[in-house]
Automatic annotation (TrEMBL), chain A:
It is a single-pass membrane protein. Its main location: membrane. It comes from Rhizobium glycinendophyticum. Residues 308-335 have a biased composition (Low complexity). Residues 22-180 form the Band domain. It holds the Pfam family Band_7. SUPFAM superfamilies: Band 7/SPFH domain. InterPro entries: Band7/mec-2_domain (IPR050710), Band_7 (IPR001107), Band_7/SPFH_dom_sf (IPR036013), Stomatin_HflK_fam (IPR001972). Residues 307-344 are annotated as: Disordered. Belongs to the band 7/mec-2 family. This is SPFH/Band 7/PHB domain protein. It is found in: Membrane.
Automatic annotation (TrEMBL), chain B:
Residues 98-150 form the NfeD-like C-terminal domain. It comes from Rhizobium glycinendophyticum. The lineage of its organism: Bacteria, Pseudomonadati, Pseudomonadota, Alphaproteobacteria, Hyphomicrobiales. Gene3D superfamilies: Nucleic acid-binding proteins. InterPro entries: Membrane_assoc_protease, NA-bd_OB-fold, NfeD-like_C. Pfam families: NfeD. This is NfeD family protein. It is a multi-pass membrane protein. The chain crosses the membrane at residues 12-36, 56-75. Keywords: Membrane, Transmembrane, Transmembrane helix.
Length: 344, 152
C-alpha cells in the first residue's frame, strides 16, 4: 500500500503537470491573447511560446488581429431626393489593439456592422440619387472617415468601406434608361442638324465664290472690251485722219469716186435682192444724181484733160487711202480685243 | 499490469514514457508535452546512472521528474520565447509598426495634434506638430492605431 508521502508525491507530480499545462500558452501568428490577473487585464500575449502564472492569470480573450471582411447586408436607404434605393456594402477592419478591442466594446463585429449601416444611411441620405450613382468613391471615402473615426476607441481600424451595389427601384431604372436614350437621341439630332447646317454653309459659300469669280470674269471682259473699243476708235480716228490728210494733200474727187462706187454697189444689192422687186427708196434720188455728177466730174477731169488715156494715174493715191480706211470699218463687229495692240 | 511493466523495464520505463510524450506532442501540438517528455527522458538518463542507489526510490524519481519538467519549460521559454528570433517577418500583423519610415502627404491638416494621412488607400490618424494639409510627413513611430509623424 502507498503511504501518505507517496500519495503526496504522486499528487505533486500531477499538480506540476497540470500547472505546466495551464501555464504554457502558445499563441499562433495572427492572434493576440489578453491576460487577466484575477479578472483584471494586465497584458497581451504575442504570438509564440508564452508562460503565464497559473492560478492568478487567465487567458481573457483570443483576438484575431488579421484584417477581416464584414459583409454589410442590403438595406433600404432614402436619398436626399426621396428615392428609395437598396444598398449593400463590405467593410474591412483589423484589430490593432487587442486589449481595447477585447474590453472597450462588447460584440465587436456587431458593433462595427451597426455603425457601418447607420453611416451608410446618413451618408447616402445626404446625397441625390444621381450623385449617389456616380460618386461611389466619394461615398466610400466619407464612410471610411466617419466609421474609422468612430471605431477609434475600440482599438480597431476600418481600412475600407466599399459600397458594393446600389439598386434603385425598377421603375426608376426604367426612367433612367429612357432618359439616357433620349439624351443620346438628342445628341444625335443635334449632330445631324449641325452637319446639315455646315453642309448648307459650305454649299452657299461655294455658290458665292463662283458668283464672285464669274462677275470678276465679266468685269475683266468688259474692261478688255472697252479697251478694244477704245483702240478701235483710235484706229478709226487715225484712219480718218490719214484719209483726210490724203484728201488734203490730193484731190477731192478721189473721195467722190469712192462714195459713188459704194453708193452704186448698195443700189445694186438692193436691186438684186430676191425677196421683192419693189424697192422703196428713202434716199433722195438727187443724191444719187449728185454722186453721178461727182462721177462726171471725175470723168471730166480725167478724160477731158488727157483724152482716152485710162484713168490710172489719179487712182493710185485714192484707192490706197480707201483700202486703209475700209478694212477696219468692215471688221468692226469681229474686232479682237487683242488685235489693235498688234497694229500699234 | 502497469506496475509489472514498470518493474520489468526498470530505468527504461522513463525513456518509454518520454518518447510516448514526445510522440503525443507531435500528434497534438501544443508545445506542452514536449517539455514533460524531455523531463522524462532526463529522468531516465539519471535513472540509468543511479538506479541501484537506495536513494533513487520511485518517489525521488517522481520529484526529479516534476522538477525537470518545470526546469525544461522555463529553459525552453527562455530560449524559444525570445521575440527576436525565428521570424523573417517580424512586423507581421503589426500594421502600424510596419508603416514606420513611410512618407505621405497630409490629407487633413494636423490641428491640436491630430491629422490624417492617406496611406495604402486608407486613412490613418496621425499625431504630431501642427502642419498644413499637403505637407510631406514621415511616420516616425506607431502605437498600434495612431501614427506619429514629423515633417520631412
Amino acid at each position: 500500500m502507498l503511504a501518505g508521502p507517496d500519495i503526496v508525491v504522486i499528487a505533486l507530480v500531477a499538480l506540476v503537470v497540470l500547472v505546466l499545462f495551464a501555464g504554457i500558452k502558445t499563441v499562433p501568428q495572427g492572434y493576440r491573447y489578453t491576460i487577466e490577473r484575477f479578472g483584471r487585464y494586465t497584458r497581451t500575449l504575442e504570438p509564440g511560446l508564452n508562460l503565464i502564472v497559473p492560478f492568478i492569470e487567465r487567458i481573457g480573450a483570443k483576438m484575431n488581429v488579421m484584417e477581416q471582411v464584414l459583409d454589410v447586408p442590403t438595406q433600404e436607404v432614402i436619398t436626399k431626393d426621396n428615392a428609395s434605393v437598396s444598398a449593400d456594402a463590405v467593410a474591412f477592419y483589423q484589430v490593432l489593439n487587442a486589449a481595447e478591442a477585447a474590453y472597450q466594446v462588447a460584440n465587436l463585429e456587431n458593433a462595427i456592422l451597426n455603425l457601418t449601416m447607420t453611416n451608410i444611411r446618413s451618408v447616402m441620405g445626404s446625397m441625390d440619387l444621381d450623385e449617389l450613382l456616380s460618386n461611389r468613391e466619394v461615398i466610400n471615402d466619407r464612410l471610411l472617415k466617419v466609421v474609422d473615426e468612430a471605431v477609434r476607441p475600440w482599438g480597431i481600424k476600418v481600412t475600407r468601406v466599399e459600397i458594393k451595389d446600389i439598386q434603385p427601384p425598377v421603375d426608376l431604372v426604367d426612367a433612367m434608361g429612357r432618359q439616357m436614350k433620349a439624351e443620346r437621341e438628342k445628341r444625335a439630332q443635334v449632330l445631324e442638324a449641325e452637319g446639315f447646317r455646315n453642309a448648307q454653309i459650305l454649299r452657299a459659300e461655294g455658290a458665292k465664290q463662283s458668283a464672285i469669280l464669274e462677275a470678276e470674269g465679266q468685269r475683266e471682259a468688259a474692261y478688255r472690251e472697252a479697251e478694244a473699243r477704245e483702240r478701235l476708235a483710235e484706229a478709226e480716228a487715225k484712219a480718218t485722219r490719214l484719209v483726210s490728210e490724203a484728201i488734203a494733200a490730193g484731190d477731192l474727187n478721189a473721195i467722190n469716186y469712192f462714195v459713188a462706187q459704194k453708193y452704186t454697189e448698195a443700189m445694186t444689192s438692193i436691186g438684186t435682192a430676191s425677196n421683192s422687186k419693189i424697192v422703196l427708196m428713202p434716199m433722195e434720188a438727187s443724191a444719187l444724181v449728185g454722186s453721178l455728177g461727182g462721177i462726171g466730174a471725175i470723168a471730166r477731169e480725167v478724160f477731158g484733160d488727157q483724152g482716152t488715156r485710162p484713168v490710172r494715174p489719179a487712182t493710185p493715191a485714192a484707192p490706197a487711202a480707201a483700202t486703209r480706211v475700209t478694212p477696219p470699218a468692215r471688221t468692226t463687229p469681229t474686232v479682237n480685243p487683242f488685235g489693235p495692240s498688234s497694229e500699234t | 499490469m502497469t506496475a509489472r511493466i514498470v518493474t520489468e523495464l526498470g530505468p527504461w520505463s522513463w525513456w518509454v514514457l518520454g518518447m510516448l510524450l514526445l510522440a503525443a506532442e507531435l500528434l497534438m501540438p501544443g508545445v506542452f508535452l514536449v517539455w514533460i517528455g524531455l523531463a522524462a527522458l532526463a529522468t531516465g538518463a539519471l535513472s540509468l546512472l543511479l538506479w541501484d542507489l537506495a536513494v533513487w526510490s520511485w518517489q525521488v524519481q517522481a520529484l526529479a521528474f516534476a522538477f525537470a519538467s518545470v526546469a525544461f519549460t522555463l529553459a525552453g521559454r527562455r530560449y524559444y520565447g525570445r521575440a527576436d528570433i525565428g521570424s523573417d517577418e517580424p512586423l507581421l500583423n503589426q500594421r502600424g509598426a510596419s508603416l514606420v519610415g513611410r512618407t505621405a502627404t497630409l490629407a487633413e491638416p494636423i490641428r491640436e495634434g491630430r491629422g490624417r494621412i492617406r496611406l495604402d488607400d486608407t486613412f490613418w490618424i496621425v499625431s504630431g506638430p501642427d502642419l498644413a494639409a499637403g505637407t510631406r510627413v514621415r511616420v516616425v513611430s506607431s502605437n498600434g492605431r495612431d501614427l506619429t509623424v514629423e515633417e520631412t
